[in-house]
Amino acid sequence: MRRTSFENAKSSLARSLEIVGDWWTLLIVRDAFMGIRRFDDFQEHLGIARNILAARIRRLMDFGILERKLYQVKPKRYEYVLTESGKDLKIILLAIKQWGDKNIYEGKGHPVSISHKDCGEEISVDIVCRLCMEVLSDDNERLDWSPGDEMSDNDRRVYSRFNTNSTFEMNLG
Amino acid sequence: MRRTSFENAKSSLARSLEIVGDWWTLLIVRDAFMGIRRFDDFQEHLGIARNILAARIRRLMDFGILERKLYQVKPKRYEYVLTESGKDLKIILLAIKQWGDKNIYEGKGHPVSISHKDCGEEISVDIVCRLCMEVLSDDNERLDWSPGDEMSDNDRRVYSRFNTNSTFEMNLG
């Protein structure tokens, strides 16, 4: 039922969540970003059952997030690396980490710090207007929302009913 | 086993995923951003079983993401609204949407368009250095990674083994 509901959902968010929306998926991707490539190394670091890990990795390959590369011929041994689409997940991981640093660790130190090499400042994940080169994450966020061609009728009904001023401003601000 | 493993994980990402890392959680939050507040409206829009929705909403309240407000006294009726911590999830939703727009819809139109009110440009979720006011998401990304006080010994071993140059650049670039 969950699956059916999602396949029908004409929403980037819903369809992306079907792919990346489970814990292990994103932790495997995180480990791949850290440089882990081999099954045994994923297994050791994540402490996950081998059969579950194998299923998750297969799923990530089906969705084009990881790809398998032969690194030894006799016997055949494969390692798993991020595709371009997999590398694009980085900002999602960093956005989740940023949320946790603020809302779980509450700014009191956090396990990993990521900073800009040129100046040492902690990086930030933000909503940006690349035309105005403005950060819109804070009080100056002024976003217009509009339904695209691909929006389902059901979503269209809901959006028009609840977003009385047809912008995100009221609810997202 | 999943739960145990996560509670031990000293990682903002892992601990955040425990809270937000399931499909329904983020879809409920998305609906809350759209302006939905009442149980029946969530239920109708998401097409989710009432008992599952009730459990998910309770969980979101336990984690401080939604809070309940009385809107009618006789009989008592509640609505569910985002807390500050819940509103902070917005950028995660937008980052996931952006990933899906590019990697699922492949730039060929998408269900929802969100643009900067001042200029009409589609917004973007980016890695930013707020000191240099630079977008670091592209080729100019130069990030230093360092373990914080809260990092577990296991993670520390893995990071030092796989990140030979102690920066993210090699693997994340």
Could you give a quick summary of the protein structure above?
Two copies of one chain form a homodimer. Chain A has nine helices and six strands. Chain A has 173 residues and is an alpha+beta fold.
Features:
homodimer, disordered C terminus, 18% strand, 9 helices, two-stranded antiparallel ribbon, 173 residues, disordered N terminus, 6 strands, alpha+beta
Overview of this protein structure:
2 copies of one chain form a homodimer. The first copy, chain A, is α+β, with helices and mostly antiparallel strands and 173 residues long. Chain A has 9 helices and 6 strands. Chain A has helices at residues 2-8, 12-20, 23-34, 39-46, 50-62, 84-87, 90-103, 153-162, 169-172; strands at 66-72, 77-82, 112-116, 124-129, 134-135, 143-147. In chain A, the strands form 2 sheets. A two-stranded antiparallel ribbon of chain A has the order 1-2. In chain A, strands 4-5 form a two-stranded antiparallel sheet. In chain A, β1 and β2 form a beta hairpin. The longest helix of chain A has 14 residues, at 90-103. The model of chain A is unreliable at 1-8 and 164-173 (pLDDT under 50). At the A-B interface, α1, α2, α3, α4 and α7 of A face α1, α2, α3, α4 and α7 of B.
Biggest interface between chains: A-B, 106 and 106 residues
Oligomer type: homodimer
Total beta-strand segments of chain A: 6
Class inferred from helices and paired strands of chain A = alpha+beta
Largest sheet of chain A: 2 strands, antiparallel
Kindly state the mean pLDDT of chain A as a whole number? Answer: 81
Strand order of the largest sheet of chain A: 1-2
Choose one word for the global shape of chain A: globular
Quote the beta fraction of chain A.
Answer: 15-25%
Radius of gyration of chain A: 20 Å
The residue fraction in helices of chain A comes out at 40-55%
Order of helices and strands of chain A: HHHHHEEHHEEEEHH
CA distance, first residue to last residue of chain A: 33 Å
Number of helices of chain A: 9
What ranges of chain A have pLDDT less than 50 throughout 5 or more consecutive residues? Answer: 1-8, 164-173
